[in-house]
Specification:
Layout: E1 6-14, E2 20-28, E3 32-37, E4 51-56, E5 61-65, H1 68-82, H2 86-89
Antiparallel strand pairs: 1-2, 3-4, 4-5
């Protein structure tokens, strides 16, 4: 697991016509406020791969490919490496 503060992900999004798009997306772990599985989200995805919703401090919500467990483990690896208290991010 990487302890880098920069996260590389594949973002999945839908345009106004309902077509799905995948694109590379980078963000910083310290900007993550919360994350949750995208199991019963408002969008009916054609891509059936597991997805996780990530809420950023800017108010933006991004949907990335990968299970919640995978993303949570990556986030824990980062917080342990950088000694960021879990309480600060509300994910304890």
């Amino acid at each position: 697991m990487s302890s880098s503060p920069i996260v590389q992900a594949t973002r999945l999004w839908q345009d106004m016509l309902g077509q799905e798009h995948e694109m590379p997306r980078a963000f910083l772990w310290q900007h993550v406020q919360e994350m949750e599985p995208d199991e019963a989200g408002p969008i009916e995805w054609k891509n059936r791969q597991p997805k996780t919703r990530i809420y950023l401090q800017s108010g933006q919500i991004i949907c990335v490919l990968g299970t919640y467990e995978q993303w949570y483990r990556r986030w824990l690896a980062y917080t342990k490496w950088h000694a960021v208290p879990l309480q600060q991010y509300g994910l304890n």
